[in-house]
Amino acid sequence: MKVALLSTFGPEVRGISYYSDCLLRALNAVDAIQVMPVDYAKIYPDWLHPAQKSPPKQNNLRVLHYARPWTWSLKRYQPDLIHLQAWTFATALMHRRVLGEAKRLGIPTVLTLHNPAAHEMAGLPAWLQNSCLRLADALVIHDACGLTAIPSQWRPKVHVIHHGTESLVLSDRDLQAADHTSPYLLYFGNIRPYKGVDLLLAAWQDLAAEYPQFRLIVAGQLWQGETLLSRVVARLLGTEKHGRIIRQLLDDPGLLNVESRLGFIADDELDRLIRQARYAIFPYRRFSGHSGAVSRAAAQGVPVLVSDVGGLASLATGRENVFQAGNQESLRALLRRKLELPGSNLPERRLQLRRAQDMSWNHAASLHTSLYEELLRAARKK
Q1: Hey, how many other C-beta atoms are within 10 angstroms of the C-beta on 225?
Q2: Phi and psi of 344, rounded to 5°?
Q3: How far apart are CA 372 and CA 40, in angstroms?
Q4: What's the whole-model pTM score?
Q5: Phi, psi for 80 (deg, rounded to 5)
Q6: What Cα–Cα distance (Å) separates residue 202 from each residue in 161, 273, 330?
Q7: Residue 78: how many CB atoms within 10 A of its CB?
Q8: Mean pLDDT, the chain cut into blocks of 10 residues (382 residues total)
Q9: Can you state the percent helix, strand and coil of the chain, rounding each to 5?
């Protein structure tokens, strides 16, 4: 079975490259599948993106270009099946072309919706989204909570396949070493309005003086724009104003024991930062799926504290590590409970690592393989 996997891939961070790299490795381990990764040459002009871009390190098979419609075709690769990853409205026109061509050629297609509900107000136009949903033979979401964001007529073709976690091979000694060097709590990821970083900073401001032995580290990229046009895009998305609010909060001299690392962080450095954190905090206000950032922290045995939106709680070790989304008091109360715990949190680390291993990429690849085989059997009967 020859599968064309259309997405962004590493090594630099681009779109959902971390997810796609992990899925690609897991699928390549399946004997029955030959996976061909197909990447984008350009999804949109670099100057249009409202966040700082990570530096390119190498070229992969980067084919589709937003300004070159003749590249929006995968038939030259003669795949048995095409699997597309959807996470931004910017790929929708290209996806519509690929899906339409595959439909005409009788090639089964799978469309994974990483964000069934748009994060910012400039979401995917309904007609364009619906045309992609109509053309795809199967839709994949990461949690059943995303079903409500999908029009009812397309729900029968939805399959729920969890976001894999790439659990590291960590010994108990590794967990103990991290436990003894973890005087900080960590938020990492892009800093956008729906992720609730302002809520976290407000809750921390009330706690920092009570627990001076701990720091809060905020690591990520603001979506404010670096060029005139990208700033216009950021304003339309609502992220430019939010970025100014975050900077003002971080610059407030009354905000104690907070360290900010804004901008691109290389993978190796980010993983070290994650692994040594006492807790990783994800105060999302709204969400409709699984989070790659939450999965990444859990896979390193770092206990995750998450809000009760989307599928975030599925990776928490228990309800005691979940707080009410958008509720500053609920978040503050959870942080206080954790900061008051004496000494080691090694038992939580062990439990978190086991929880992550239950949602392995190998299991996710097995579920994808079964879906591919089902679609190919149906296509042969036509």
Answers
A1: 23
A2: -75, 150
A3: 23
A4: 0.77
A5: -80, -25
A6: 35, 22, 12
A7: 11
A8: 93 73 93 93 72 50 88 94 91 94 97 78 66 96 86 94 73 70 86 90 92 92 66 66 83 88 85 92 87 88 93 90 95 94 84 85 93 95 81
A9: 45, 20, 40
Phi, psi for 203 (deg, rounded to 5): -65, -40
Q: How many of the other CB atoms lie within 10 Å of CB of 16? A: 20
Name residue, tokens 């589709």. Answer: 64
CA 136 to chain CA mean position, Å: 22
* pLDDT tens figures, 282-299: 999 988 777 888 988 998
**Residue 170 has which token pair?**
């960590």
Residues counted in the chain: 382
343 φ/ψ angles, rounded to the nearest 5 degrees: 65, -135
Per the listing, tokens 């503050």 go with 332
> What token pair was written down for 4?
């064309």
C-alpha 1/C-alpha 10 separation (Å) is 24
- Determine the residue type at 75: K
Strand 322-323, strand 304-307: pairing: parallel
CB 289 within 8 A of CB 310: yes
Residue 296 CB-density burial (10 A; 0-12 exposed, 13-18 middle, 19+ buried)? buried
- Quick one: tokens of 12? 């630099």
